[in-house]
TrEMBL record:
Organism, scientific name: Mesobacillus subterraneus
Family: Belongs to the peroxiredoxin family. AhpC/Prx1 subfamily.
All copies of domain Alkyl hydroperoxide reductase subunit C/ Thiol specific antioxidant, residue ranges: 2-77
Any one GO MF annotation of this record: thioredoxin peroxidase activity
Protein name per Swiss-Prot or TrEMBL: Alkyl hydroperoxide reductase
Gene Ontology cellular component annotations, sorted alphabetically: cytosol
Annotated keywords: Antioxidant, Disulfide bond, Oxidoreductase, Peroxidase, Redox-active center
Coiled coil: none
Domain (Peroxiredoxin C-terminal) ranges: 98-124
Amino acid sequence: MYPYIKALGAEMMSISTDSIYSHWVFKEISPSLKNVIFPMVSDRTQVISRAYRVLNAASGASFRTSVFIDPEGIIRTKLTYPDDVGRNLPEHVRILQALQFAKQTGEGVPANWMPGQPGISTDPSNIGKI
């Protein structure tokens, strides 16, 4: 998915409280990480995890969280997953596309929106009419 995310004009990286050496070993032994080409960042000091409020203080590790930050540095979406549930990367792409659509059109993005579908008016006078 990384090349597709890059083609949408976005960047992606993984950040964990594991050391760079753990990242290297995990990438070497894990078939799912063997071909990872996006940056893997070590947050051993937990500064990043604390700043984004995703640090699990009990374990010292970050919660499994995806953060969408716009070009102006504003967090637009933050998804935190349970430890036993993996991320849904197609949904991440849809969120990115929806954020870009809303910015380009000024329209809202309704529930279950998919690229190619229309947006909705964000005019407050439409509240309760949609």
